[in-house]
């Protein structure tokens, strides 16, 4: 009995065309300090930025502080966003309502999909964006705002458009 089957879709075109492979892997040790510490607690770790992945994806580990935080429902036009809960409970907005997700739960949001999240108490999750847009500036600006930085209403509106974030 042959295990060879036709694929339901093909693999993408080759990107690497060399012979024998290359030593290009990189490791980010778990003990690496978070890239951002938020004023109200919580942190964000840049596991794989869009710059590091050639724009393919961005992967971030989010740790919530003691007080509940997270964005209200919104959507993105150009990027998908996926959530994987590592520890604790995170409330996720799935476009129809808020659901409580716990360790091992996963939510994928295609372009245009309504979503939001809320967490507290040290809950941790992975956030993945595809393709890998420059989300670091978004996270860093939010952290600066939490430490007293300011944006005018017009600047805030431009900032959200620049970062493909549309509030509902």
Shape: globular
Helix/strand/pairing category? alpha+beta
Q: Percent of residues in beta strands?
A: 25-35%
Helix content: 10-25%
* Major β-sheet profile: 6 strands, antiparallel
Number of domains: 1
Radius of gyration over C-alpha positions, nearest whole angstrom: 18 Å
Instruction: Report the average pLDDT across residues.
Output: 97
Query: How many distinct beta strands?
Result: 11
What would you note in describing this structure?
There is one protein chain. 13% of the residues lie in helices and 32% in strands. The protein starts with 35 loop residues before the first strand and ends with a strand. It has two helices and eleven strands, in the order ββββββββββααβ. A six-stranded antiparallel beta sheet has the order 1-2-3-10-5-8, covered by helices on one side. The protein has helices at residues 135-146, 153-162; strands at 36-37, 42-48, 58-64, 74-75, 80-87, 89-93, 98-102, 106-109, 116-119, 124-130, 166-167. It has one domain (36-167): Jelly Rolls (Sandwich). β6 and β7 (98-102) form a beta hairpin.
Would you spell out the secondary-structure blueprint of this structure?
Blueprint: E1 36-37, E2 42-48, E3 58-64, E4 74-75, E5 80-87, E6 89-93, E7 98-102, E8 106-109, E9 116-119, E10 124-130, H1 135-146, H2 153-162, E11 166-167
Antiparallel strand pairs: 1-2, 2-3, 3-10, 4-11, 5-8, 5-10, 6-7, 6-9
């Amino acid at each position: 009995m042959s295990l060879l089957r036709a694929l339901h879709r093909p693999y993408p075109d080759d990107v690497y065309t060399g012979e024998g492979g290359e030593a290009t892997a990189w490791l980010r040790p778990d003990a690496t300090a978070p890239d951002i510490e938020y004023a109200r607690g919580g942190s964000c770790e840049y596991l794989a930025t869009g710059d590091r992945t050639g724009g393919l994806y961005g992967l971030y580990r989010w740790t919530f502080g003691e007080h509940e935080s997270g964005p209200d429902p919104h959507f993105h036009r150009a990027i998908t966003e996926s959530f994987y809960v590592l520890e604790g409970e995170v409330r996720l907005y799935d476009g129809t309502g808020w659901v409580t997700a716990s360790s091992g739960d996963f939510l994928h949001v295609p372009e245009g999909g309504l979503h939001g999240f809320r967490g507290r108490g040290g809950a941790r999750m992975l956030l993945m964006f595809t393709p890998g847009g420059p989300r670091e500036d978004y996270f860093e600006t939010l952290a600066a705002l939490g430490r007293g930085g300011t944006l005018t209403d017009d600047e805030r509106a431009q900032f959200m458009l620049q970062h493909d974030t549309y509030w509902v």
